[in-house]
Design a protein that fits this description.
Shape of chain A: globular
Number of helices of chain A: 15
Order of helices and strands of chain A: HEHEHHEHEHEHEHHEHEHHEHHEH
CATH architecture of the largest domain in chain A: 3-Layer(aba) Sandwich
Largest interface: A-B, 33 and 33 residues
Helix content of chain A: 40-55%
Strand order of the largest sheet of chain A: 1-2-10-7-8-9
Low-confidence stretches of chain A: 1-16
Oligomer: homodimer
Structural class of chain A: alpha/beta
Largest sheet of chain A: 6 strands, mixed
Strand content of chain A: 5-15%
CATH class of the largest domain in chain A: Alpha Beta
Distance between the termini of chain A: 50 Å
Mean pLDDT of chain A: 92
Chain lengths: ~350, ~350
Amino acid sequence: MTSAQMKPGEPDIRAAGDEPVPTAAMVHDAAERIAGLVRETPLLNAPSLDRIAGRRILVKAESLQITGSFKLRGASNRIAVIPEDHRGGGVVAYSSGNHAQGVAAAASRLGLPAIIVMPADAPAVKLDATRAWGAEVRPYDRQNESREEIGQQLARERGATLVKPYDDPYIVAGQGTVGLEIARQAAAMGIRPDAVVCSCSGGGLVSGTALAVRDTWPDMAVYASEPAGFDDIARSLAAGERVANDGTGDSFCDALLAPMPGEVTLPVMRHTLAGGLVVTDDDVAEAMRLAFAHLKLVIEPGGAVALAAALSGKLPKEVETVVCVASGGNVDGALFSRILTG
Amino acid sequence: MTSAQMKPGEPDIRAAGDEPVPTAAMVHDAAERIAGLVRETPLLNAPSLDRIAGRRILVKAESLQITGSFKLRGASNRIAVIPEDHRGGGVVAYSSGNHAQGVAAAASRLGLPAIIVMPADAPAVKLDATRAWGAEVRPYDRQNESREEIGQQLARERGATLVKPYDDPYIVAGQGTVGLEIARQAAAMGIRPDAVVCSCSGGGLVSGTALAVRDTWPDMAVYASEPAGFDDIARSLAAGERVANDGTGDSFCDALLAPMPGEVTLPVMRHTLAGGLVVTDDDVAEAMRLAFAHLKLVIEPGGAVALAAALSGKLPKEVETVVCVASGGNVDGALFSRILTG
């Protein structure tokens, strides 16, 4: 990115390497690029939920996105900018979850072949959902193989473009379209929120969303929410550098277990976030039950951490109106049943 | 209604009594009247669900409507036309379910007091939800009291306006705004459906929706879907007159147990519907599971009968693209869990 591309007032942030630094302008470009490829998801609320929370809560229901999570946005934006002469090689990604489906669907809709490296012991429902989008699945043995090596080898052999889950400016910009929709939808409801909270693993969603909402509301307080034991973002923000999880954590938020913040995402987060919030699995389960009862939403554990922060008192008390991004809804029926029945 | 108010091409239908006959024009008026009082709900689809169904299915997610069902639409339209000098008396309704919440919320938002006559043994969650909208609840004894008599007495004593659940042209017109949104949203997706299916109890939703969608697509095939044992609409359409359920039926679709079609709604249905479809509780449970897995929607049993018809082969095979209205999502967690786990 040249400085001419930066909008006045945007923070002067530099990511590692030669990649452009994600900016609000890139999020606007992404929104234009992926219009028609992704669904505008609703911004929902329920007075009965607000009474329980003691504040007004708006839920951005990315659980209703095509593929059941926001991951389609970044993948669509990334794949759409692959140069014409590289499209034939298709794309490769490694993921056991929402990113797999997002890449598979985006590639399918943009007409590129996709191969997804997935653990051989991943739930059949996730393998099937990825194949259902027309992707080839390359299973690997978690104990004896490296998914990164397999992915890089496939990229070399096929000339495929590697689509990273978060540490890529085009992925960040695509996820940020969630924030543009939030700003537009809240304004249409006559609401100016005091804070926006996103679930956070590698930081793609919260980085992009922060760029987008702060383009409309420059002083908006944006928070990352993480499960206890996987609070690498909160600790990295506090430390001012990338700090990894210690690997001893245990959480049922299977979508949020990235080991450390991204090289692209952490600089953005340092310049745009008000802080990191940490919730327990119990907080998350209660948020899932309340979203079911009051909003009629199916939210997966990793998708409910932002709402959990707003409901459990982890968010500062003075926040009267908050937007919580419910980032995904891919949870199997048996687990969802167990959570509903406590 | 005078004939001058009827649009050319509209069927010449006459309801019993002095009430205006519901028309597409009344649905358009309702949409203007209740804009800002109701939520535009999304029209959702999932390719993985389409593969299972063998056809393209679009689900109109009224489960995501404020109060968790479409009932808010009709109630808002009905209450909004109460003359100024009758507003002080407020409104009265009897319902154990979605209509109770719809009337309570509509009255609250329009600034009128509401009293809802509900069975004393109704689930606490439904009594609470109704009270949460600021309505007074008048419990009655199902065995020894008549809710109609109580409602009429309250109406006399307080000068309150009775808001019927379906047999009122303004209720029909309000529910019909679902159909206007379907027509607009499908057109925006570039889709011309072959059929529209609504769940059906007294016929308010399907009557209004049929008027609305056939205003855009005059030959659209609109079907009512009902649970087996409560197929009074299907039988009334076949018989050409109002036929009641025999009272021996048993279904877990608690929202769809009206004893017979309405006097206002049946004439509309006779002129606008392609027919009635009948589904089993097993069909409904499977539709709820598939909506959870593929669309991340919480649909209550009565809200899933339209989708059940499209998934179970009850809908004619030649229908390649169908819109199913998911009319509500008010189901308690214990029942939903049991259904998810089969």
